[in-house]
Write a structure and sequence with these properties.
The protein has 137 residues and is α/β, with parallel strands linked by helices. The strands form 2 sheets. A 3-stranded parallel β-sheet has the order 1-4-5. A two-stranded antiparallel sheet has the order 2-3.
Length: 137
C-alpha cells in the first residue's frame, strides 16, 4: 500500500512468479508487525494511527492499536484490493488470515492491542474478498 487505495504488488508478484517457476503454489500471510523489526506500515499511515509502546524482546517497541479507525479503513482497502487482484489466481494455493498482531497471528500477547471487533471485521473482509482462493488460519 503506497497511498490511500493505491497498491504496488511488485514484491508479491516476484514471490508468486518464483514459486510458479518451480511449479509450486504459494501460501502466504501478510503481516504488519514482526517482533524486533520495524513496523510494516505504509509511510502515509504512521503519523495517522495510534501506536502503543510495550516491552519487546530487545527493549521498547511500538505496535499499532488494531482498533484504530484509520488503520481499519486501510486494512479493509488492502484486503479488498488483494482479493480484486488475486482471488482465483492459480499461483496461490491459499492465503492465511493475517495483518493483525505479532507476525500476523491475531495476538499481541501479553498485551492486548486487538479488540474483538477488529478481528471479526478482518475475517469478514477476507471472506468477502476471496470467494475462490482458500483463506484460513
Amino acid at each position: 500500500m503506497v497511498g490511500d487505495n493505491l497498491f504496488d504488488w511488485t514484491i508479491l508478484e516476484g514471490l508468486l512468479a518464483g514459486s510458479a517457476s518451480r511449479n509450486m503454489h504459494a501460501v502466504f500471510r501478510v503481516f504488519i508487525h514482526w517482533l524486533g523489526d520495524p513496523l510494516r506500515l505504509p509511510i502515509h499511515l504512521i503519523d495517522k494511527i495510534e501506536l502503543r509502546q510495550f516491552t519487546g524482546y530487545d527493549g521498547p517497541e511500538y505496535s499499532p492499536y488494531y482498533g484504530d479507525p484509520v488503520l481499519l479503513e486501510a486494512l479493509e482497502q488492502f484486503i479488498q484490493a488483494l482479493g480484486d487482484n488475486y482471488d482465483g489466481d492459480t499461483r496461490i494455493h491459499s492465503i492465511q488470515l493475517g495483518l493483525l498482531g505479532f507476525w500476523g497471528e491475531f495476538h499481541t500477547y501479553p498485551e492486548d492491542f486487538i479488540p474483538d471487533f477488529a478481528k471479526v471485521n478482518v475475517i469478514n473482509w477476507y471472506k468477502a474478498a476471496f470467494s475462490t482462493t482458500q483463506i484460513g488460519a
